[in-house]
Amino acid sequence: MKRSLGRRLIAALLVAYALITLLLVAWNYWAARGQLVQQSPAQMLGSLLARSVEKLRDAESACAVAQGFASELERLRKLQGYAYGGAGVNLRDGEGRSVCQYGPQPAAELSEGLSQTELQGRPHAVFQAQGGPWRVQVLDPLIGDDVLILWVLSEIGSSLLLALPVLLLTLWLAVRTGLAPLRRFTARIAALDTRHELAALNLDLRYAELQPLGDAFDALLKRLREQLARERALIHDAAHELRTPLAALGAQAHVLLNSRDEAGRAQAAQALQQGLARTAHLSQQLLDLARLDQERPPQPETLDLAELAATQLRQAHPQARARGVQLGLQAPEALPWQAERVALQTLLQNLLDNAIRYGAREVELQLGQGPDGRPWLAVADDGPGVPPEQHQQMFERFWRGAQSQESGTGLGLAIVAQALQRLGARLRISNGLQGRGIAFHIGL
C-alpha cells in the first residue's frame, strides 16, 4: 500500500493527542498527590495535639492524649475509605528521646510543619510541631501511586475515550478538506494537454503551502515553452538553410548527369562535392547545437586543457592548410581542470573553424592560468574582424554579417554561446593579432 499524506497527518495528530493525554494524566497525578498531602488530617490533628500537650509535664498524661489522637486519626481515615493502616502518633521529649509511639516512626528527623515521606513502601503525610516540652509527630498514610494513577484515569479517561471518536472524525474531515486544493491541483494538471497547451496555470491556490508548488509548475511549463520555441526555431531555420544547398545539389547533379561537356561535368562535380561538404558541416553543427541545448546537468571530468587544446589544433590543421592559414599554440605543458569534455571540445572546434573560415592568415590558440588559479583560453586571428556594434548579434543563429559570401553556416558562434553557457564560462572580446582581427577570451 502506498504511503498516504492524509494517513500520515492523522497519525501525527493522534500521536500528539496521546502525548497530550499523558501530560494531562501526569499533571492530574501531581495535582492530586499535592492535594492529598494538603488535605490530610495530619496537620489539623497534629496542631491540636501540640496545643493539648504543651501544658502537660508528665509523660504518662501526654502519652494518653497522644493515644487518643492516634485512635481518632485511624477512625477518620476509615470513614474516608483510606483503610490502609500505618497511621501513627509519636511523642518525643526535649532531648529527642521517644516517649511514646503509636504506629510507625520515620527513620530520619523531619522538618517542622507538613511534609511527605516514604515509610514502609507507602507515601505518608507527616506533620511535626513543638508542643511545650514535647515534640509531636503525626503520620497519615496516603494512597499509593498505582491506586492514585488508576483514580486519575477513571476520572479523566472516560472523557478522553468519549472524545476520541469525535476527534477522529474531526481530524478526518480536517485532513480531507485541507488536502482538497491539492486534489484539485492534481486534477488540473492531469487534464492539461501538453501537446497543445503549455500556458501557465496561474492557479490561485490560496494557501501559502501550495502556492510554491503552483509557481514551480508554472516555471516548469515556461521552460518547456522556451525549449519548444528553441526547437521549432531551430527546425525552421535549419529547413530554410538546408533548402538552398539542397536545391544547389540537385541542380549540380542535373548538370553532371546531362552535360556532354567534360569541363562542365568536372565543374559540376566539384560544386557538388563542395555542396555536400557544406551540407554535412551544417548537419554536424545542427547536431552539436541540439546536444548543447539539452537540459541535462553538466558532467565535468578532470581534463588536461593543454593536451585538449593541442589535439583540437591538430584536427584543424588540414582545414587551415587548405586555406593557407598558419596555426599557433601558446600553452603550458599541462593544465589540469574540471570541465565537461564535449562542451569544451565543441567550443574550441567552432572558435578555430570560425577564425579559419573568415579571412584570417594567422590563428593562435592561447592557454594560461590567471592570478586566482582559474584557467583561461583565447583564440585570436588577424582577419577582418567584426565591428563592436555587431558583437552581440554575431552569436545569433545563422548570422553571417559581412562574411555572408563565405562557406560558413552561421551557426559556429551560436554553438560557442551554448557551450559557454553549459561550461559556466565568461567571454571577453578584443582585437586580435597585431591589433587586427578579433580575439575571443574565455575564462573558465
From TrEMBL:
Pfam families given in the database record: HATPase_c (PF02518), HisKA (PF00512)
CDD domains from the UniProt entry: HATPase, HisKA
UniProt key word ATP-binding: yes
KW Kinase (keyword) present: yes
TM stretches of this protein: 9-30
Any single Gene Ontology cellular-component annotation: plasma membrane
Alphabetized Gene3D superfamilies for the sequence: 1.10.287.130, Histidine kinase-like ATPase, C-terminal domain
EC number: 2.7.13.3
Sorted UniProt keywords: ATP-binding, Kinase, Membrane, Nucleotide-binding, Phosphoprotein, Transferase, Transmembrane, Transmembrane helix, Two-component regulatory system
Top-tier EC class: transferase
Molecular function terms, GO-annotated: ATP binding; phosphorelay sensor kinase activity
Substrates-to-products reaction catalysed: ATP + protein L-histidine = ADP + protein N-phospho-L-histidine
Domain (HAMP): residue spans on this chain: 176-229
Protein's cellular compartments: Membrane
Lineage: superkingdom: Bacteria
Stored SUPFAM superfamilies: ATPase domain of HSP90 chaperone/DNA topoisomerase II/histidine kinase, Homodimeric domain of signal transducing histidine kinase
Segments forming domain Histidine kinase: 237-444
Topology in membrane: Multi-pass membrane protein
Designated name of the protein: histidine kinase
Protein source organism: Inhella proteolytica
